Amino acid sequence: MNGMALQPVVLWSDALLFVLIAAIVALVFWARRQDALRAAWGRVLKDTMAMAAATVLAVFVLIGLLDSLHYRARLPAQPGAEARYAVEVLSALDALLSDLRQRSEKTYSAPLATHLFAREALENSTQREFPRLKHGGAHLGADLAGHEFDIAVRVSRGCAGGLVIWLLLVSAWCRWRGVAVVEMLKVGVGGPAIRAVLLTLLPILLLFGIAIAVGGGYHVFGTDKVGQDVLYLSLKSIRTGLLIGTLTTLVMLPLAVLLGILAGYVGGWVDDLIQYLYTTLSSIPGVLLIAAAVLMMQVVIDTHPDWFATAAERADARLLALCLILGMTSWTGVARLLRGETLKLRELEFVQAAQAFGVGRFAIMHRHILPNLMHIVLIALVMDFSGLVLAEAVLSYVGVGVDPSTISFGTMINTARMELAREPMVWWSLAAAFSFMFALVLAANLFADAVRDAFDPRASA
Amino acid sequence: MSILEVRDLAIHIRAARPVDGVSFDIAAGECFTLLGESGCGKSMTALGLMRLLPAAAQVVSGSVSFEGTDLLALPESHMRDIRGGGIGMIFQEPATSLNPVLTVGRQIVEALQLHAGLRGAAARARAAELLDLVGIPDPLRRLDEFPFQLSGGLRQRVMIACALAGSPRLLIADEPTTALDVTIQAQVLDLLDELRHKQDMALLLITHDLGVVARMADRIGVMYAGQLVEEAPRAAFFAQAAHPYSVRLFAALPDAERRGGRLATIPGSVPAAEVRHAGCRFADRCSEVMAECRSAPPPWREIAGGQRVRCFLPGAAPAVAAGVGAGDTAAHAETRPLLSVRDLQVHFPIRRGLLQRAVGAVRAVDGMSLQLMPGRTLALVGESGCGKTTAGKAMLQLIRPTAGSVQLDGVELTTRSTHELRPLRAKMQMVFQDPFASLNPRLRIGDIIVEGMQALGGGKVGAGGTAAKVGPLLEQVGLRAEMASRYPHEFSGGQRQRIAIARALAVHPQLLICDEPTSALDVSVQAQILNLLSDLQRDLKLAYLFITHNIAVVDYLAHEVAVMYLGRVVEYGSADEVLPSPRHPYTKALLAAVPRIDGAQSEVPKLAGDMPSPANPPSGCHFHPRCPLADDACRQSYPAETRFGATQLVRCFKAG
Amino acid sequence: MLAYIIRRLLYAIPILIGVNLLTFALFFVVNTPDDMARMQLGVKRVTPEAIQKWKAERGYDQPLVWNSAAAGGAKLTETILFSKSVRMFVGDFGRADDGRDIAREISTRMGPSLAIAVPTFVLGLFAAISFALLLVFFRATALDISGVVLCVAMMSISGLFYIIGGQWLVSKVWHLVPISGYSGGLDAAKFLILPVIIGVIGGIGASTRWYRTIFLEEISRDYVRTARAKGLPERVVLFRHVLRNALIPILTGVVVVIPTLFMGSLLTESFFGIPGLGSYTIDAINAQDFAVVRSMVFIGSVLYILGLLLTDISYTLADPRVRLQ
Fold first, then answer.
1. Which of A149, B215, B280, B505 has the fewest CB atoms within 10 Å, counting from its CB?
2. Same fold, B1-103+152-217 and B339-352+365-442+487-583
3. In this complex, which of A276, A287, A296 lies closest to C266 when CB atoms are compared?
4. d(Cα B63, Cα B42) in Å, to the nearest integer?
5. CB distance C159–A390 less than 8 Å?
6. Residues sharing a CB contact under 8 Å with residue B584, sequence separation 6 or more, in sequence order
7. According to the 3-state scheme, what is the secondary structure of B225-294?
8. B210 near B597, Cβ under 8 Å?
């Protein structure tokens, strides 16, 4: 009997995400051969703010990718039986964070607490007390006086660990480039952008160090209503945010590019029809159109429970459907922009020169129009990302977002807001979700700004 | 007594040094011209004087003294009194230099409030006076109009009125007529000259046009690569320019005398502003270059009568001998025209009202006929908006004509479908005006040139086969074969125009429609392109339809001339007949409006007013509202063709 | 001008028909009324009778587009398409699931929505343009750069955070205003002030940055150089020349939202318990009350189209090139 220790599971969203990553890598290689693109990316790579933001984004993407390697663990072998696998679909991130995932408490507990947030009647007492947590601070035993000292020790241990790893990284880099570390930090070798990357890595590594050291004994961000570790939930939310931000544009871009260029270049009734289409779609208020479509999709999913083998698949289908709906409703803006630019381009002399050779319409659109619109497409792509991450939270709050069982910033906020009225307030879930979201969106916005400045011909003129 | 003294002015934009030590004086009431090609730092100098430089540019050294005040040391609030009050300025593009959403009156009045302290009705009255002064008819009505309601010439007059509002003692005019047609240019130059004398105002005129210099200047400063290289009074300069660069600017000018010959060119192009120079900045392009030119910058050397030059050569630079061409090569043996256009019309409908019905049409081309023999050059001349570019594109079927016939080598084009036209496209190609817009920035030069071959050769030309053809083509137009792997942004304007020509030649056309191919280029580069075109005509027996507004170019290369006015050809014939003795009053005025480098003023009266809109052409002869000879007959019917001499056809009742 | 407006109005008709058909398809074709009934009733209570009853109560028991059982014109009118979609054109929105008349509900809830949306819009516009002008006046200085960074940071914060944080700080910690609720008359002010301030702060980052970009684009134009060459002070250049021209692109983005102010704000109203159209919509979405959602979609697009029309008209007022041609 020879089964694998785990059975890989590829959800649709995983597959699309990896296709997307592959496409981006391919694009990078293609862009390296294109002079103008290489020059523009060169400007991004030299921009310290952009590189710092890119570093933060890369960490988020790494976490998201780890969370997209799904598998089902093998159940303990029954002698003589076939290898059987758990129903629960886990990811590589879950495996890394298995401690955080499994050490759940009964209900709310504050960050770094040793006791539950609510009083409970203890078994052998009539008094209602705050019960000790099963995991948070359990290693302290009865010695609660050492609580704060223990945390301080763990924080400094984490900092030290982070610092050591960072120094190792920096010295490895410096050895490779053959420079002294001090000089590197003073002037930056390979440009100030590299220094920005390394300096951004420092706080990230420190935070990681602290989280690991403190998280080993406590719930760093506390626990939620059902006792799950909030740090774990926040990390899991990253994948959802990334997926919505990227897959939506994947749906939207082909539509926007195709229809925008067709309307602008072909003109006539094609233009009229496409303009009618996007005016009609954009005349419906965005949230309402999305809400209506999501409600309908929900009915479809609910009335066909037989389509999905596991709950994870169902949640995944709903996530994809949401991306699809967001994409279908948001292509209009970019299409309008591309149509306008195409109208300008088609009057340019190089297009007329191609027409004078009798080059066909589609060849002209493909060779002459599309490449000269790519910078707009790219700018739209990066600018939309942050908006979509924020939109997910709002939509989930309104009740037309992801499946309630999918961990996301939106669902975290949505469940936490029920407890806002509580006295004292349960603030940590909200705080964690908002901080992670802020870091992700800010990094994306700063990066998008740099990309726009580098690619916008007006900015460079 | 100088009112402006500029000393060692240097302006840097990061690593670039567009202005690198410029000194000159301007006396009260004097007209000083800064002459030079694009990118030599003329405009930057002017903006530096006014302290209106873009944010990235900085004055790093030097001094500017206006009426004894050091402008560079003035606090900004005092500098504002100088701007508009002491020094007025007008710019090249009247279309964009006026605020589109404010009325003309408002824009003049705000300057009057600031510098003359006038308010309300007094300011308005003065603004009307100013409009009257700059020759705008019906000034009270114009005060309440917006810039877009005025023609280009009127807008430039409004700009001048704005600049005059503060009664400046010095007016800086930065290429004030470059964006205007020659007939309008002549009006504006006359106005500037008249105002200068009337208001006793000094004029700093920036231009690239030797003709404008000859018409306007008292003294001239020739700028090259951020420095002045020659300074001279007009008479001395035009009698004998001293610097090799100045000499070559003259030699590069096309005109009738150089017909059939080669124009002198300056090899290469103006060095980029980032380049550091050890010696003379012109050394690399100078045929008289000596060893010392490369090692040290030449000092100023006084010649005589106020003429001085920055050159090591003793005496004035030798005149450039124009190369001898092969003469007029075109044989007259051929009798069948290559291109034959009859009654060509291109109308664009104007849609109005609830149902967007066509209520009229812009008659861009309104019945033109012409013929072009193989291997000959026909120049289609006219001012902007006369329909010449539309006509060219309609002949190529890039714009489908509304009516009329276009025959190429005996084959009718207008009735053919896009698909049926494709095999014919190899016979006729086009070279466009703007070398920066005519090449796709995302394609390599090789791919750009191959595109036509692939489209017309069935698309199945082997990669090796086409690539092998690119190299010789690039060499044929004076570039190097290895440039095929580069992108357009690495090339200068002149090089790009060569690439565009190579692209057209790739499919072996018999007819090349050249739409103002040199109007975006500097004079020295224009000469290179014109030489190339005449070489190609000789070697490949190409026929050119040369669309241009530049009479000098026509004079130099055209065999036949067609003069267009408002969509129709008003005069047509061989260049030998038409240019020396134009018969149509419009042709006469057009030729007379071109400023001549000998400074001579023509006897023919200048044209008043602007070209009417092709959407609403005047009744009768389209030209009658501007024509000094017009009478009732002209107002009632359009004149038929009258033949003069062997070839000259004129549509005018008064011709004779 | 009149012909132009009429043409724009006529152009709106096919768009509204398109919206109507789209919502009809979304609500009745993607899922049949049977599907909806099954989901609303829950798995346990689904019987053919229950479904029939549910459909009959809501008027969903007619055929979709063609009633072959009916006579004459009723073949078309006694259908879901006609009774649920086409009748919206005359303002007949039918009844919500709780039996209330949707049109009446909308008219009573419009007031509170406007009471929040209009001050938020006006103050937000004013604040963002002022800040943008300030940044542009000090362009390329430390103030400008830090202002832009602040804008980016502010637009990176979730709108939910502004609301939750604002409520917590102002109402729970400082006890300045009630946390939520609404009342008519002047009393409303104490309920409105916080949501309005939060609305302004929440939107100011993105709009300031946008206006700044527009101003900077205008400032690089030739006519600004002309204005400076006249000796005008920077302040006059900004206010008289740049602002006037920048108004044209600003109007495109701003005027179109004015009619949609009627729709209220979903988040603000639901968090602050304001009985406006925004909270009405949210409640309907949560209760899966399709009739209400459908009506709001329709009204929203009517208002948007009105916005497009107003944008065109405002162009002609702001831009003499459009007005006089």
1. A149
2. yes
3. A287
4. 17
5. yes
6. B563, B570, B571, B623, B650, B651, B652, B655
7. CCEEEEEEEHHHHHHCCCCHHHHHHHHCCCCHHHCCCCCCCCCCCCCCCCCCCCCCCCHHHCCCCCHHHH
8. yes
Cα angle B605, B608, B610 (rounded to 5 degrees) comes to: 140
Q: Residue window 374-403, chain B: list those with CB within 8 Å of chain A.
A: 393, 396, 398
Question: What pLDDT sits at residue B204?
Answer: 96
Q: How many CB atoms lie within 10 A of CB C212?
A: 23
Among residues A245, A237, A218, the alpha carbon closest in space to that of A109 is found at: A218
In chain C, positions 117-146, which contact chain B (CB-CB < 8 Å)?
A: 139-140
Of C3, C231, C321, the CB nearest to B353: C3
**In chain B, what are the domain boundaries?**
1-103+152-217, 241-327, 339-352+365-442+487-583
Contacts of C18 in chain A (CB under 8 A): 276, 280
Structural domains of chain A ordered from first start: 6-98 (no CATH), 105-215 (no CATH), 237-460 (1.10.3720.10)
C neighbours by CB contacts (3+ pairs under 8 Å): A, B
Q: Which chain C residues touch B50 with a CB distance below 8 Å?
A: 229
Gap between the Cα atoms of A107 and A229, Å rounded: 10
B contact chains, 3+ CB pairs < 8 A: A, C
The mean pLDDT value for A231-252 works out to 91
- B441 contacts A372? CB cut-off 8 A: yes
Give the residue ranges of chain B where pLDDT is below 50.
325-327, 329-331, 459-461
Determine the Cα–Cα distance for residues A326 and A349; give it in Å rounded to an integer: 37
Element housing B35 (H / E): strand B31-35
pLDDT tens column, A44-88: 888 888 999 999 999 999 999 999 998 888 887 777 667 778 878
Q: Please, which pLDDT band fits residue A274 given cuts at 50, 70 and 90? A: very high
Cα distance from B370 to chain A (closest Cα, Å)?
21
Cα–Cα distance, C133 to C235 (Å, whole number):
10
| A287 CA to centre of own chain | 21
For every residue of B296-339, DSSP letters joined together read SPPPEEEEETTEEEE-SSSSSPPPPPPPP-------S---S-SE
Q: Does B531 touch chain A (CB under 8 A)?
A: no
Residue whose pair of structure tokens reads 């220094």 in the numeric block:
A195
Quickly count: other Cβ atoms within 10 Å of residue A398's Cβ.
21
pLDDT value at residue A1: 41
Q: How far is CA A460 from the centre of its chain?
A: 30
**What is the pLDDT, as a whole number, of residue B333?**
56
Residue window 254-283, chain C: list those with CB within 8 Å of chain A.
Answer: 260, 263, 266-267, 281-282
Measured in angstroms, the CA of B278 and the nearest CA of chain C are apart by 35
Cβ <8 Å between C26 and A293: yes
Instruction: Give tens-digit pLDDT for A409-451.
Output: 999 988 887 777 777 778 888 999 999 999 999 999 999 988 8
Q: Residue A358 and residue B396: Cβ atoms within 8 Å?
A: no
Of A187, A337, A313, A210, nearest to A261 by C-alpha is A337
pLDDT digits (tens, 9 = 90+) for B305-346: 889 999 888 766 677 655 554 445 444 556 789 999 999 999
- Interchain CB contact of B114 with A (< 8 Å): no
CATH tag, B1-103+152-217: 3.40.50.300
Q: Shortest CB distance from C245 goes to which of B89, B101, B166?
A: B101
Sheet holding A70-73, edge to edge: A6-9, A70-73, A90-91
Q: How far apart are CA A295 and CA C289, in angstroms?
A: 10
**Does the domain made of B339-352+365-442+487-583 have the CATH classification 3.30.9.10?**
no
Would you say residue A3 has pLDDT above 70?
A: no
- Selected for mutation to probe chain B from A348, A357, A369, A373 (highest B CB count within 10 Å) is A357
